Amino acid sequence: MNSEFERNNQVGARRNSSSFGRIERMPPLLVAGYLAMVAIAIMFVMLVAAYVTTRLRSGVPTGLHPLPRYFSLSTIVLLLSSYTIGQARRLYAQDDLGSLARCLGATLLLGCVFAGLQVLGWRELMTQGVFFQGRTSTSSGQFIYLISALHVAHLLGGVLFLLALLLRVAHADRDAVRSLVFIRNPYHRRQLQLMGTYWHFIDVLWVALFAVFLFMY
Q1: What is this structure's pTM?
Q2: CB 182, CB 97: distance < 8 Å
Q3: Buried (b) or exposed (e) across 180-196, using 16+ Cβ within 10 A?
């Protein structure tokens, strides 16, 4: 009985793990990725707040021009890419590297299509008389270009990470031994987990930005 009492009174006994303790046990790759996403979210919140404030102060009524249709199309494309990347962890768990490579390739293609549609959306803004610079440019119009371009830049960062991961999967899929090593390596599983989380984050971020543009444009 004394031994049980001593165990219960040891330092840290029956102590619930704190949030910091759980963070310390997380792999450094995931911690760095989550911190980066928090920083990105804070930056875009500040930009959106500045855009809304500038837009309201301008006194120009909303709805003078329709929001570029390419922004709407790009939103659909990004939602599709979020679905395809969502299948990656299931395929990895099934040891199906061939299908995983096709899944990552489809996500990569959809991400590039999204970036292209954003560029077409900027051209549509120009046809409406909304320019980033020049005598006819406005502060609220500049924010639309800036926020959209920064989002595309962060998406392209994810595209590069996705391309590197796709090349590793395709390389491992060519050989049975490399395939087995790849599947059993926890580092690759964490990379895939971080890639999926980051892609969904970029997707949700754009949907929120698109909603702001839709009501404030």
Answers
A1: 0.84
A2: yes
A3: eebbeeeebebbbbbbb
